[in-house]
Amino acid sequence: MTESTLTLPSGSWPALEPGWVWLCGAGPGDPGLMTLHAIHALKEADVVVYDALVSKDILAWAGPETELVYAGKRGGKPSAKQADISLQLVELAKAGKRVLRLKGGDPFVFGRGGEEAQTLIQHGVPVRIIPGISAGIGGLAYAGIPVTHRDVNQAVTFVTGHDKTGGPTQVDWAAMSRACGVLVIYMGMKHAATIRKGLLSAGRPEDEPVAVVSQATTPEQKVLETTLGDMVRDIEAADMAPPAIICVGRAVLMRQVLDWQALMRGEAPRDLDPLKRGKPAQEG
């Protein structure tokens, strides 16, 4: 591991005190999307308890004596139990450690950060919350998809594809489909067929644009443009894998003009006014 030489600007930074836990979002993947408070905490912490989506490049900002503790949770793989993670944070803080709990994205957006913070406060451990850029916003932005566009939607709905039951069983697809034109679905890859069925049953059209963004904001980022009707088949054909965000709605069409990474490579926009057209390309 190579130690980062990043130097924070001078100023009055809050101190990570012994016995405290800072609950920080690490952003969607690109180390440049970390907040300065989170980087500051990495340099001050005695212990960093980090999730599966926190990269080695981010952890390289930790101090040379900092203990790194992996506490990742990945679907279908052996993972630490949430209750054990929360109690471990309590124990570390009670031992007088300066603790950084580092979670991918934003800790309060489908990240169970609220549960961890609640446990800490119930045990008398002081907490500071540092928000992070959520993958459902930042990851889609890196793919050239705005979650809101004045010509498309006046609201956006964020949905989890993995609730307490292990699937999206508590989602009222009909109500959600009536209320919002753009849906952003976290952790939905495993249950893509269930999501597709629910949305089609709720009246969403088969030709509605869908984008799947895997490994968002990282060098391994992969984007699939498809339709609701073809979503499951195309995900399998393109070998898309989690972690991934699924976006449903006409905002996906904007990628045809706003794929800024393609523009940086010298490629021309596919359509300067895609909302006047209809269907996205099958893969991008």
UniProtKB/TrEMBL annotation:
Gene3D superfamilies: Cobalt-precorrin-4 Transmethylase, Domain 1 (3.40.1010.10), Methyltransferase, Cobalt-precorrin-4 Transmethylase, Domain 2 (3.30.950.10). PROSITE patterns: SUMT_2. Pfam families: TP_methylase. Pathway: Porphyrin-containing compound metabolism; siroheme biosynthesis; precorrin-2 from uroporphyrinogen III: step 1/1; Cofactor biosynthesis; adenosylcobalamin biosynthesis; precorrin-2 from uroporphyrinogen III: step 1/1. One of its GO terms (biological process) is methylation. Its EC number is 2.1.1.107. Belongs to the precorrin methyltransferase family. InterPro entries: 4pyrrol_Mease (IPR000878), 4pyrrol_Methylase_sf (IPR035996), 4pyrrole_Mease_sub1 (IPR014777), 4pyrrole_Mease_sub2 (IPR014776), CobA/CysG_C (IPR006366), Siro_Cobalamin_biosynth (IPR050161), Uropor_MeTrfase_CS (IPR003043). Residues 21-231 form the Tetrapyrrole methylase domain. Keywords: Cobalamin biosynthesis, Methyltransferase, Porphyrin biosynthesis, S-adenosyl-L-methionine, Transferase. GO terms for molecular function: uroporphyrin-III C-methyltransferase activity. This is uroporphyrinogen-III C-methyltransferase. CDD domains: SUMT.
